[in-house]
Design brief:
This protein is mainly β. The protein is built from three helices and 21 strands.
Amino acid sequence: MAVSDNRQRYMPLPDDRSSGRCQPLAYPEAVLLVDPKMKDLAGELYVDDKYQYSCDNKDNKVHGWICTNPPVGFWQITPSDEFRSGGPLKQNLTSHVGPTTLAMFLSSHYAGQDLVPKFRGGEPWKKVFGPVFIYLNSSTIKDDPFWLWEDAKIQMMTGVQSWPYSFPASEDFQKSGQRGNVSGRLLVLDRYISEEYTPANGAYVGLAPPGDAGSWQRECKDYQFWTRADDRGYFSINNVCTSTYNLYAWVPGFIGDYQYDAVINITSGSFIEMGDLVYEPPRDGPTLWEIGIPDRSAAEFYVPDPDPKYINKLFINHPDRFRQYGLWNRYAELYPDEDLVYIVGVSDYAKDWFFAQVPR
């Protein structure tokens, strides 16, 4: 199974999750394999948990499976996440034991009821999910079967460049000529750092239905269109469906959410140049201290080693090691008598601040 360049492994068989071959864990989706039929997993304590293979919407463009004999690949390619709910950082399931490949469009996972669409009083609603491309590839017996993943990535990039697809017959799926485009430049003005405008390097900039700043994270009925600004703050959001939007953004390294103060009406064939936009992060004074980096990731904080009994070897020394099963229990084990204390100027958030805020 391949979800990304660094998340690939031989997976258990469905039978390995059957009674007698596994031990149920804290929730039904997670089991400890104790007697797997897969010879590659023999002698390995291994947690199987489909949530370990979740992925941000922004990165969820290709995932699937390789059969090594004969070398055949089965891939799901989703060139755009415009129809997924919750914005670019929303986590969604991908592939898992089955072999199962999921196309997740709407999900309350990791978020709760805020991301469940609600309809009242005969409210009309329609939306196009997809198209999603199922791609099959193969190679000769003598070839390295893992090349099939590289080929699937090439096909994914072809799909991204071809979006929106031209073949759907539905009038509800807008083709490229029916959509609009927005471009501009985002700058940051934080007078406690500098009196000069700073380019919003790497900012996430998007169009989503009108709402409050940050409301795109809970939006689940309509479409969202996101891009990243370059190192000078310039951005271009292309192939936007016709509708009315707010423009939102956040800038790695700065707290808060940006929202443009007027709605943007996208019409067919429109090219809207926003010019220079300025984000002023919320401030009441200079920064006295901070723990971590305001980048909407907990990667810089302390992620403990898992309990040796509940381990997935894929995530040992891995950037996504936070996905190991059962890390919530490690907090109480590490701090049995009282909660951790962080001493400003002395403590190191990479060692002294737990990556997740968990209950005992």
